[in-house]
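Consider the following assembly input.
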Amino acid sequence: MIQVEGISKRFGDFVALENVSVEVPDGSLTALLGPSGGGKSTLLRVIAGLERPDAGRVLISGEDATVTPARKRGVGFVFQHYAAFKHMTVRDNVAFGLKIRKRAKDEVRTKVDELIALVHLDGFADRYPAQLSGGQRQRMALARALAVEPRVLLLDEPFGALDATVRKELRAWLRRLHEEVHVTTVFVTHDQEEAMEVAEQIVVLNHGRIEQAGPPRDLYELPANEFVMGFVGPVNRLGDGLVRPHDLVLSPDPGEGGVEGMVARVVHLGFEVRVELTLGDGSAISAQITREEADALEPAQGDIVYVRTEAPRVFSASESERPAGTPWAPTTRDPAPASPRGRAATPSPGQRA
Amino acid sequence: MGKLALRLTAVAYLGLLLALPVGFVFYRAFEHGLGTAWQSVTTPEAEHAFWLTCEMVAIAVPLNTLFGVLCALVLVRQRFRGRALLSAAVDLPFAVSPVVIGLALILVYGRDGWFGGWLLDHGIQVIFSVPGMVLATMFVSLPFVVREVVPVLREIGTEQEQAAATLGATPLQTFLRVTLPAIRWGVAYGVVLTTARALGEFGAVSIVSGKLAGQTETLTLHVENRFQAFDLTGAYAAAVVLAIMAVATLLAINLFRPKERT
């Protein structure tokens, strides 16, 4: 278990972390999610010992590791740009930590072969990093970090430098790897889709503070504030409240409390249909409805429809401005009321931060 | 056409400025046959000059390499007040004429210098002897390793070193296994340049040496000595020895260099 208690870190005038407290349970896969400059990478580097916090404590497996140098923390770290040892072959890269620990030659060889197979780099063992693709280099970096059997695996935007297809592949692969190896893993990402897909727990960081932490579904269904709601999925503003596109109901007649809107555009997304509307006050919102609903309604550009929602979220000012340093533990919340379609979060690509 | 003209200009420039004069030195050295040339570089004075030059290189190059790598690490990896000043100071030997450097050394270490007198009282003669010449050689060849290593260090960044640290390496292990291999060609090229400069240094050494043939005469000073004595074959032959030493250094480095990997 990793416990981070009241960590603060400044770089000159810039406040990277302000009184941040987090707990990462043993064996879990946790994402630190947030916009760039939000403090997530700094937090990861503080846990790794690559950055010394100005205040606060870091405990790894119950031991205070705040002033322990990185090399003694038993962490594996994977960098966005791989940090491959360019003058070493894949085999030597992976073996590095074991050689430093002066393990017997046979043991090193067996272990390295095992790891190279685990990351599917068989046949590439004698290549140099320059002869590998980005995805292969990152898998090599993972094998290198895993070789020393770290208590904690830390990944800093591990797929950030890769193209979209490889990134998707590696996400799924990381998830499977975690099920196989089961090492406590924390990874940093600015991509909410990636966090939702891979992580069991998500910690949302913004302006050096924790906005919310919890399982992906909680964040999506029960966002603590406007920032989280907007960051983890698409949102519409309807009056004072915020609402997800698929929580909007469209009907041809006003009914009770229906808001009038004119259809500006209809986009067919396959199973779902996105209807973009212009409301009376000139604001634009978009609703996501199923194909059956669309078939019943037959919306066309210029049509007048009425928008209703059962659960617009209204955040008070105090909720959107959470006090810094509210500690978080992965508590069990009341289960979120399942949305009518009971689906996982699949926000539209345009909503990425 | 334009490409050809450009190439011709480059070749002609190098030819007239470098190849022709150097070639002529070789020609004049062996003008009276190999035997004569060999004789003139195996006189006791010439042999002494050869070994003294080797001694200068053997002391100045390792020390400047060590200092150069340390200094480059400090310049690239540390932020402190006066860093720009240190960086400028490293370039001083480039900016200041060797003659001035020689005079400056006399001011400090000479009989009437700041601690020259004190050193003499303790039996250490710096000026007009080998220690002063080593100092002068080190001074003029100081910037090369620093200037070659700094850009390489900057380019490799710190991530590989951080990775090594998280894998359990101590700072020394990280330096030896990760940083040094990554900068080795920068260091090697710096060593070649330092060696070439140390071999060829004339001005500063000339001033602090006193030019005593067979005692404080390096190869470059020997070349001048022979030239002044109208022993042209001797001068040219010694010059050829200098050139061969420099070329040998370059070849040695290239020999150890593995084929470029893609």
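Chain B has 14 helices and no strands. Ask yourself how this observation constrains the way the partners meet.
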